[in-house]
Design a protein that fits this description.
This protein is an alpha/beta fold. Helices cover about 45% and strands about 20% of the residues. About 50% of the residues are buried. Bound molecules: nicotinamide-adenine-dinucleotide (NAD) and zinc ion (ZN).
Length: about 350
């Protein structure tokens, strides 16, 4: 059990193989009662919807299940409107707990609904992807996309509880599994050298979803994310290090229209570019580029991406939402687990790095 102690609230993260069968009991232990509204997607409902409801039912909750269509393109206010309608049809009250059961798309949208329905109802995160377990479900950022950009409409709204059942990763397709590993490798690079050793040593078992090893890794990463957001929930300082590889990663996603390159692939290429930028300006120690390259190779993540316009990517970094006073704040590594924030990176260094990664 991991504790998040953010300014906006404290909550526990339970990470266990099979935790979903204790969902109801965990809610009750967290002081929640009454009715529970499980928000999930068409893909997830048949995988674990019934188990979630059965557990809630056994713990005395009145239960409702609502499914939304699968995919980022449904993370919109239109989908939210449909959920409000259903909540009203169910006579959901201010004590009704909204549970997001799914990947980051479902979790972000469920949190936004919970933050706004009747000015806020209890919210529980029940992530089902590796990325949502180690990243999206912790930290209280909730929201939906706008036609003009991702995650533009949202709030900080911490969950009352996070329940992570690593056994649900058994059905996760390979590509989203590897995306989760991109964020895990990022955590190792910016915060924890021993974890990188473990990732190198046990890659076969981890990619094979070994129950004990994967659960331990997820719990460790959830704890790392919890520590960062407990220190800096609103991303005024420390939390920015989590954007390692993301300035270029987000730009690649934007330039490719959020279709051909997924987030995890964009940020592995982005981390390669960041390492090259750091090396070029004398910040990043020799050997880091090669170490990253080996790790991404092993986990099936790209270190170069062909056919992407480097000039367009450079231009898109200027739109990155972390831009402050027109200067891009680059997260670079001096050394493994020693990130620095630099806003004085010359365009030339970025251009060269992009030429190497996108060439
Ligand atoms: N709030 C935050 O701090 C934060 C952080 C990172 C990402 N995000 C958001 O998270 C979203 C991406 O999340 P994601 O990568 O989980 O994608 P996702 O929610 O789209 O899930 C990926 C795919 O896997 C399927 N899936 C999920 N769990 C499954 C399972 N157990 N078995 C089989 N299939 C399963 C989903 O149906 C979907 O098709 C983005 O919208 C992003 O903005 C939020
Ligand atoms: Zn990310």
């Amino acid at each position: 059990v991991i504790e998040v102690t953010a300014a906006s609230g404290r909550y526990a993260v339970h990470c266990r193989w099979g935790a979903i069968d204790d969902l109801g009991g965990l809610l009750r232990d967290a002081g929640l009662a009454g009715s529970a509204f499980v928000l999930t997607s068409e893909t997830i409902a048949p995988i674990c919807g019934e188990r979630a409801l059965a557990s809630l039912d056994a713990a005395g909750f009145e239960t409702y299940l609502h499914t939304i269509p699968d995919g980022e393109r449904h993370k919109t206010l239109d989908t939210v409107r449909g959920v409000y309608d259903r909540l009203l049809d169910c006579h959901a009250e201010r004590t009704t707990t909204v549970i997001g059961l799914g990947g980051g798309v479902v979790g972000d949208l469920a949190g936004f609904v919970a933050a706004t329905y009747m000015r806020g109802v209890p919210f529980v995160q029940c992530p089902t992807t590796l990325l949502a377990m180690v990243d999206a479900s912790i930290g209280g950022k909730v929201g939906v996309d706008h036609a003009r950009g991702k995650n533009l409409i949202g709030a900080f709204y911490p969950p009352r509880l996070v329940v992570q059942d690593t056994s649900l990763l058994a059905t996760l397709p390979d590509r989203p599994l590897r995306e989760g590993f991109a964020e895990i490798i990022k955590h190792g690079l910016i915060m924890e050298a021993p974890m990188l050793d473990a990732l190198e040593q046990h890659a076969t078992r981890l990619l094979g979803r070994d129950p004990a090893m994967l659960t331990e890794l997820v719990a460790r990463n959830a704890a790392l994310k919890a520590t960062v957001v407990s220190e800096d929930e609103r991303e005024g300082g420390r939390r920015m290090i989590l954007n390692y590889g993301h300035t270029i990663g987000h730009a690649i996603e934007a330039v490719t229209g959020y279709s051909s390159v997924c987030h995890g692939e964009a940020i592995s290429a982005g981390m390669m570019a960041a390492a090259r930028i750091g090396a070029a300006i004398g910040v990043t120690r020799a050997g880091i580029i090669e170490r990253q390259q080996r790790l991404f190779d092993v986990y099936g993540l790209p270190t170069t991406l062909a056919g992407i316009d480097a000039g367009a990517v450079l231009a898109a970094t200027a739109h990155d939402k972390k831009v402050s006073a027109k200067r891009v704040r680059w997260i670079l590594l001096e050394e493994i687990a020693r990130p620095v924030i630099r806003d004085d990176v010359p365009d030339g260094a970025v251009r060269e790095a992009l030429a190497a990664v996108l060439g």
